[in-house]
């Protein structure tokens, strides 16, 4: 985990989705602002900057490597446990079925087993996505709708894609 890096913040100017039967094309026009940051030794740090397109006051919240690892570990464990529980419920249902045990949905055991089989993979998928995409860097607007924490047309480009960093290095 690099202590110093550059975040790429995008100001979306135009976004169009063109549908032609089974074919779709997404056209995006945006400008980017490169924001260098340094990871703090502990806790999290705020980096203030302005959007190069609209001059909006924005900030990055950068977690320390220790904090980031803690968040990632929690998400990974949530994913592992959720997938494990889903598989266990599925195996239990198959074993019960082959043993001639009927697990009717009218019973609590039947409902819980079905819920576990259906919901655990969903929870696991969300947690796994969060684990994979968590970079410990969050974008906030300084003047924002506090309830929604919106940053307007600004989004942080996902470093998990690897594009942002490569793009910076190639310039
Ligand atoms: Zn902007």
Index terms:
disordered C terminus, 171 residues, 39% helix, single chain, 3 helices, alpha+beta, three-stranded antiparallel sheet, 2 domains
Describe the structure.
There is one protein chain. With 171 residues, the protein is of the alpha+beta class. The chain folds into two domains: 4-61 and 137-169, no CATH class; 69-131. The chain is 39% helix and 32% strand. It contains three helices and six strands, in the order E-E-E-E-H-H-E-E-H. Strands 2-1-6 form a three-stranded antiparallel beta sheet. It has a three-stranded antiparallel beta sheet with strand order 3-4-5. Strand 3 (44-50) and strand 4 form a beta hairpin. Helix 1 runs antiparallel to helix 2 (108-133). The radius of gyration is 22 Å and the shape is elongated. Residues 162-171 have low confidence and may be disordered. Zinc ion (ZN) binds next to loops.
Brief account:
The protein has 171 residues and is an alpha+beta fold. It contains 3 helices and 6 strands; from the N terminus they run ββββααββα. It folds into 2 domains: 4-61 and 137-169, no CATH class; 69-131.
How many structural domains can be distinguished in the coordinates? Answer: 2
Task: Sketch the topology as an H/E string, one letter per element.
Answer: EEEEHHEEH
Structural class: alpha+beta
- Give a list of the ligands: zinc ion
The fraction of residues assigned to DSSP E strands is 25-35%
């Amino acid at each position: 985990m690099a202590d110093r890096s550059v975040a790429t913040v995008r100001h979306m100017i135009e976004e169009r989705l063109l549908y032609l039967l089974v074919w779709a094309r997404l056209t995006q026009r945006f400008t980017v602002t490169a924001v260098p940051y340094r990871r703090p030794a502990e806790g999290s740090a705020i980096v203030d900057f302005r959007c190069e397109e609209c001059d909006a006051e924005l900030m990055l919240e950068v977690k320390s490597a220790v904090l980031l690892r803690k968040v990632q570990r929690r998400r990974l464990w949530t994913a592992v446990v959720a997938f494990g529980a889903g598989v266990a419920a599925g195996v239990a249902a198959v074993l019960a079925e082959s043993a001639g045990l009927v697990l009717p949905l009218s019973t609590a055991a039947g409902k819980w087993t079905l819920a576990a089989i259906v919901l655990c993979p969903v929870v696991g998928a969300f947690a796994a996505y969060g684990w994979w995409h968590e970079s410990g860097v969050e974008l906030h607007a300084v003047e924002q709708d506090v309830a929604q924490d919106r940053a307007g047309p600004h989004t942080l480009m996902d470093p998990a894609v690897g594009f942002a960093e490569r793009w910076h290095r190639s310039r």
